Amino acid sequence: MRFLVMVKATRDAEAGVLPDEGMIAKVGAFNQRLVDAGMYLDSGGLRSSSEGIRISCAAEEQRVERGPFVPVQELVSGFWLVRADSMATLLDMFANCPFSNGERLEIREIRP
């Protein structure tokens, strides 16, 4: 099973504030645990929505909207693409996720 783990945006992320070196090291160590467990496929951080574009597709026209987008708490600022035998296995691994400042994760299974 493959899963997309989305890191929901914060005001700091939307303002372009990058994590400090300590957090980068913690995330790197967490990523290595995912690799060692055979779960890691990919991950990354996203630029602020102010640099993003949304395309609304309708039957007869596409509407292009340039960021920034609101509400911030509904945006995504990063992701992990992982493989796991079950949601329970994934939740066990992400119980040790390095975030501790109120960050929120959203997990979705990718359809086969």
Short overview:
By secondary structure, the protein is an alpha+beta fold. The chain has three helices and six strands, in the order E-H-H-E-E-E-E-H-E. It has helices spanning 11-14, 21-36, 87-94; strands at residues 2-8, 40-45, 53-57, 62-66, 76-83, 105-109.
Description:
This protein is α+β, with helices and mostly antiparallel strands and 112 residues long. The protein has one domain (2-109): Dimeric alpha+beta barrel (Alpha-Beta Plaits, 2-Layer Sandwich), CATH 3.30.70.1060. The chain has helices at residues 11-14, 21-36, 87-94, and strands at 2-8, 40-45, 53-57, 62-66, 76-83, 105-109. The mean pLDDT is 95. Strands 2-5-1-6 form a 4-stranded antiparallel beta sheet, with helices on one face. β3 and β4 form a beta hairpin. The protein contains 3 helices and 6 strands.
